[in-house]
UniProtKB/TrEMBL annotation:
Keywords: Membrane, Transmembrane, Transmembrane helix. This is Citrate utilization protein B. InterPro entries: Citrate_utilization_prot_B, NarG-like_sf. The keyword Plastid does not apply. The chain crosses the membrane at residues 125-145, 165-185, 244-268, 280-299, 319-337, 343-362. SUPFAM superfamilies: 4Fe-4S ferredoxins, Respiratory nitrate reductase 1 gamma chain. The keyword Transmembrane applies. It comes from Sphaerotilus microaerophilus.
Length: 393
């Protein structure tokens, strides 16, 4: 463990805008290591989230440790507002920002294929919206050329796009997203497993991690009253809106799955009546997703500037925008049933869904996967004896 003196010198130099000689200061991972060495001497935030107990099991923070801890952080902001060494203090301790910088880099570093990760990291919002618009336009042109864009359709989506054509369009996109996510997860898991005891996953650890994922435990600020957004006031809004978005997405996914089973097993063709399981799941999921993403977008615009990594904002906003557009166009498609606008809304909705799945492996959704993996490794690691023995889990 480095002594505090060089760390203080380094922090002073950084605060004064001076060049620093330590190699740790030259990378986002180095900045996390620097602030966590200070935290490890302080430990005031020990009860806030999983990051701090995991930190106390380490005296040094190597690259894989930092990647693991950065994805364990929920960016709740609590440790920034509680910290006596936060800016403008000369130590310049800003754990949420340091973690966010590294997290953004891990999405690109573990992405498969890597060039797509880097492209999305730099241009998330533009790429998301442009891809959705381009795909929707492509579908609109295809329908227009067949002469079926205007006029009341026969009532079935498959009069506009034959079912086999939809399967042919979407199966490769879904398959690619699943493969890319699996490859990214495999890389992350192989990297962080050795530094988190290397022990295999047990059933109790899995159950604990699943509970933390499903309830977003660490967005409670460590005391149950919520986390921070634009200021030092606690708010449960972030946690609730994340839940609306997460469960809305799952309901929409379930609606698609049930609809697929209904098609193949029962011969039912979409669109379905309101009093049917696929429609009820889809409408509930779409409304939940619409409210969740609208709220998260609003909170993102008002977020405290010190909480996150400015370079990551396009990626965050790109993912929120695509989820919003997917839910809004899906609900509009439902309301347009039987009208002349149905083909247009169908093209717009399909374009959004395809763009969403094509970009899933490279942004916030991938982070959900890495965070789940980090929580699982934490649940495994905390069941092992503390190799340092100075702190308590
Ligand atoms: S964030 Fe600040 S207060 Fe919290 S443990 Fe680190 S140095 Fe201490
Ligand atoms: S920002 Fe919140 S989740 Fe992240 S390390 Fe600080 S207290 Fe933990």
């Amino acid at each position: 463990m480095r002594s505090l003196d060089p760390l203080i010198e380094e922090a002073r130099a950084l605060a004064d805008g001076q060049p620093v000689s330590s190699p740790s200061a030259h990378s986002a991972e180095g900045e996390v290591a620097r602030v966590l060495q200070i935290c490890n001497a302080c430990r005031y935030c020990e009860g806030f989230c999983a990051v701090f107990p995991a930190m106390t099991r380490r005296l040094e923070f190597h690259r894989a440790d930092v990647h693991y801890l950065a994805n364990l952080c929920h960016n709740c902001g609590a440790c920034l507002h509680a910290c006596q060494y936060a800016p403008p203090h000369e130590f310049q301790v800003n754990v949420p920002r340091a973690m966010a910088e590294v997290r953004g880099r891990t999405y690109a570093e573990y992405a498969w294929p890597a060039p797509l990760g880097r492209l999305y990291q730099r241009n998330g919002l533009t790429l998301s919206v442009a891809l959705a618009a381009a795909l929707a336009l492509f579908l609109i042109l295809a329908v227009a050329l067949r002469g079926s864009l205007a006029g009341t359709p026969a009532g079935s989506f498959y009069d506009i796009f034959p079912h086999h054509l939809l399967v042919g369009l979407f199966a490769p996109v879904f398959g690619f997203a699943a493969l890319a996510l699996a490859m990214g997860l495999r890389r992350f898991w192989r990297d962080v497993t050795p530094v988190t005891s290397g022990q295999p996953v047990s059933a109790p650890a899995s159950a604990e991690a699943a509970g933390h994922v499903l309830t977003l435990t660490y967005l409670d600020g460590g005391h149950g009253e919520g986390c921070h957004n634009e200021d030092d006031a606690w708010t449960l809004a972030r946690r609730r809106l994340h839940h609306l978005t997460f469960y809305g997405f799952l309901l929409c996914f379930a609606a698609t799955g049930v609809g697929t089973l209904a098609h193949y097993l029962l011969g039912w063709a979409a669109p379905y009546p309101l009093a049917s399981l696929p429609k009820l799941l889809g409408v509930a999921g779409g409304v939940s997703l619409l409210i969740g993403t609208t709220g998260l977008g609003w909170l993102n615009l008002r977020r405290h500037p010190l909480h996150g990594a400015p370079a990551q904002r396009p990626m965050d906003r790109g993912f929120i925008a695509l989820l919003f557009l997917t839910s809004a166009s899906g609900l509009a498609l439902w309301l347009a049933a039987g009208s002349a606008a149905l083909p247009l809304w169908l093209c717009l909705h399909l374009g959004c869904v395809m763009a969403l799945f094509a970009t899933l492996p490279y942004g916030k959704f991938a982070h959900g996967i890495y965070r789940t993996a980090a929580l699982l490794r934490h649940a495994v690691e905390k069941r092992q004896p503390n190799p340092v023995g100075l702190g308590a889990d």
